[in-house]
Design goal:
Layout lengths: L2 H7 L27 H12 L7 H15 L26 H14 L11 E3 L3 E2 L4 H13 L4 E6 L2 E7 L7 E5 L9 H9 L19 H17 L8 E5 L7 H9 L2 E6 L2 H9 L5 E3 L2 H13 L4 E6 L2 H10 L6 E2 L8 H5 L7 H10 L1 H24 L3 E2 L6 H7 L5 E6 L2 E3 L4 H9 L6 E7 L4 H20 L3 H17 L10 E6 L1 H16 L6 E5 L7 E2 L17 H12 L4 E6 L9 E9 L3 H24 L3 H13 L17
Parallel strand pairs: 3-5, 5-18, 6-7, 6-10, 7-9, 8-9, 10-11
Antiparallel strand pairs: 1-2, 3-4, 12-13, 14-15, 14-16, 16-19, 17-19, 18-19
Helix pairs in contact: 2-3, 7-8, 7-16, 11-14, 13-14, 17-18, 17-19, 19-21, 20-21, 21-22
The structure holds nicotinamide-adenine-dinucleotide (NAD).
């Protein structure tokens, strides 16, 4: 059967052969047992409703075993035999080019070279699911292959509810993931309702079909490191950045440090993770001895080398040793997985990796004590460095939160609302005021032809557009423009593509709209194939997350999620090809509401109309909210936008004379 035929058949009428558990791929961890006996029966009934009753007797024991062995029913038997990867758009069956583009993006999220646990349909973050099971995958691909541009597919946490009549300007797909009644949004609620098969954790770009591999995180980290050095008014050259973690996301730090041009030291306790990043060329050197590390670092600083060094050991030891050796750290952060402190996210100092793993499983109480003791030690050492001028920031990994819970000295001496900790988060000081409040965020695109030469042409077009805009940009945003021009010029050389032919850069509404228009024109002239636009949810408007994306909102509204909802509703009726809204992502279930879009450009005048309408809203929605929160940079940005667009009229805040209080 051809690839097209397999897609068109959906769930096969005949039972496919059972598939043995493939030990050659990276599998999701076994999920904890959480369902009662009655609930297990319900989960099995829920799973079987995808299949003809004639197969139930065969499938029931198999699904029962999956639930017992893995804590979830993935329906491995229904995994397709064809290779899953972002094939060029012309290879998909269908009646709608927009739907074919969505198929391409789904295939990319499940590509073995891209996805973290491909057989469990998990793209990244350990739990970021595209679908809950293979029946959903097969049905969705079939629906997309059958649908027309006058229908909309409705996705209910991985489950395709069906095709509904709509119209050409409506989204082809509407996605929700993990939306819960707020009182049912504790971490164990995810475990339970996901095991029942009624919800899933979509992370940000997993369940919204917008993941582009590690390129996104490399770019975001580069921008953070560059702006971190600006914050302390120091050139990256000859500067020292100390941090930890060479895992999924954290592994981007040394590469980003190299692109920024500083000396990076990144500690990692897991030798396997270090080996992977070293073999990929994401870190230049590995050193296991602290004295050797000090000598090497001092030499690199003096010679103003651009170099990244992995320290094969615990980050706490690096902070302490550099203090003893009087090594001045310019930028400091941490990217251990402290959102998950008791189950392997953070390895305490004083224990070997193996000892820690053993204690975690066999003596969890003692392990918790060790983690907290280590966090107190780490904070004490960081505090000594910051007294000597180090700029330390929390990298969205809950370091400050867990350190505070451990009783470490991280609370501010004079706390203000929203500024309870001694140190800022990267959004509070860097990303928020320097990028998001001005409208700069992670715009991305994918060349649907799958041709690297199309990507090269779009890179050139994007660069031309940004250079032209920069000539007349106000001084406030010149730096952001320049960083992204530098990035796009180096993008081909840095070989960032894994999976689909994708690119990311930070741009504001003007930049995003003008770049998209240039692409649409090039498509209409036959110079490139169709282009799919999108963005990370970690952006100006799409995400309400009080300790990350909206941590620099100080009017008390950072615990509200209206902005993310407005964003997705507004994108839907302004021409997005698909939209998504999720609970959870990055910082955890119940901690964030995030959304995004995808938009197909086909060179038509309709595509031009849609991109202008939707991209304008997609960015200015968040700037309006940020300006109402009294953020100066956002007030500047929205006033500038109102000057340019007479149809935009935003409510602006009045400031109160502090002496009145
Ligand atoms: N702000 C952002 O943009 C952003 C982006 C990505 C990740 N994060 C957060 O950063 C954290 C890391 O993400 P990840 O995907 O890299 O996770 P990961 O679990 O893949 O990697 C973390 C690494 O830290 C190592 N580690 C743990 N304790 C250590 C210690 N004491 N010393 C040295 N190494 C230690 C682990 O061995 C692991 O390899 C997460 O909490 C994530 O949510 C934030």
């Amino acid at each position: 059967m051809t690839f097209k035929d397999e897609i068109l058949q959906g769930i096969p009428k005949q039972l496919p052969e059972a598939k043995p558990y493939d030990t050659g791929v990276n599998h999701a961890p076994k999920r904890k047992k959480i369902l009662s006996a009655e609930e297990e029966t319900l989960a099995l009934k829920n799973a079987l409703r995808y299949f003809n009753p004639e197969h139930h007797a065969t499938l029931l024991p198999e699904f029962k075993k999956e639930l017992k062995d893995y804590g979830r029913i993935y329906m491995y038997r229904y995994r397709p035999d064809y290779k899953i990867y972002a094939r060029p758009i012309a290879e998909y069956p269908g009646k709608s080019e927009q739907a074919k583009a969505i198929m391409l993006m789904i295939q990319n999220n499940l590509d073995h070279a891209v996805a973290q646990h491909p057989h469990e349909l998990i793209t990244y973050g350990g739990n970021g699911a595209v679908f809950q099971n293979w029946a959903q995958y097969r049905l969705v691909m079939q629906y997309l292959a059958e649908m027309t541009d006058e229908q909309t597919l409705v996705m209910y946490s991985g489950h395709p509810l069906g095709l509904f009549p709509s119209h050409k300007d409506a989204p082809r797909v509407v996605v929700t993931n993990g939306m819960m009644i707020p009182n049912y949004s504790q971490p164990d609620d995810w475990e339970k309702f996901n095991a029942l098969g009624v919800t899933q954790y979509g992370q940000m770009t997993a369940g919204s079909y917008m993941y582009i591999g590690p390129q996104g995180i490399v770019h975001g980290t580069t921008i953070t490191v560059l702006n971190g050095f600006r914050k302390i008014k120091k050139e990256p050259s000859g500067g020292l950045f100390v941090t930890s973690g060479l895992g999924g996301m954290s592994g981007a730090q040394p590469k980003a440090g190299n692109i920024a041009g500083c000396v990076t030291v990144c500690a990692e306790v897991n030798k396997k993770a270090t080996k992977t990043r070293y073999s990929q060329g994401w870190v230049d050197e590995v050193i296991s001895d602290l004295d050797e590390l000090s000598v090497r670092v001092q030499k690199a600083i003096t010679a103003k080398e651009t170099v990244s060094i992995a320290y094969d050991g615990n980050i706490v030891d690096v902070w302490e040793h550099f203090d003893k050796e009087n090594i001045k750290i310019d930028l400091g952060s941490d990217q251990t997985s402290l959102h998950n402190p008791w189950a392997g996210g953070y390895y305490p100092a004083g224990l070997s990796y193996e000892e820690a793993n053993e204690m975690m499983a066999n003596n969890p109480e003692k392990f918790k004590e060790e983690v907290q003791k280590s966090l107190r030690r780490q904070t004490e050492a960081i505090n000594k460095h910051t007294e000597n001028g180090t700029y330390f920031f929390d990298y969205g990994n809950a370091f400050l939160l867990e350190a505070s819970r451990a009783g470490a000295n991280v609370m501010a001496d004079n706390p203000e609302l929203g500024r309870e900790f001694k140190y800022p988060s990267y959004v509070q000081d860097i990303m928020g005021p320097m990028c998001f409040d001005y409208g700069f965020g992670p715009f991305r695109w994918v060349c649907a032809s799958g041709k690297p030469e199309d990507l090269q042409k779009t890179d050139d077009l994007a660069c031309e557009v940004l250079e032209k805009i920069m000539k007349n940009s106000p001084s406030e945003i010149q730096q952001q423009m320049q960083d992204n021009i530098t990035w796009i010029k180096g993008a081909q050389e840095n070989k960032l593509v894994v999976g689909s032919q994708a690119r990311i850069l930070y741009a504001d509404a003007e930049g995003r709209m003008k770049i998209a228009s240039a692409f649409n024109k090039a498509i209409s002239e036959g110079k490139i194939g169709p282009v799919i636009l999108g963005r990370d949810h970690h952006d100006v408007s799409g995400t309400d997350s009080p300790y990350r994306e909206t941590s620099n909102i100080y009017d008390g509204s950072r615990f509200t999620a209206d902005m993310a909802i407005h964003n997705v509703i507004g994108d839907s009726f302004r021409g997005a090809t698909w939209v998504s809204i999720h609970n959870g992502g990055g910082v955890g279930w119940g901690e964030v509401i995030n959304g995004g879009f995808g938009m197909v450009l086909d060179g038509s005048t309709n595509a031009q109309r849609r991109l202008e309408s939707m991209l304008f809203w997609d960015v200015n929605n968040g700037i309006a909210r940020r300006s109402w929160a009294r953020n100066d940079e956002a007030i500047f940005a929205i006033k500038r936008e109102m000057d340019r667009n007479p149809n935009l009229k935003v409510t602006l805040p009045n400031f109160v004379d502090e002496s009145l209080f």
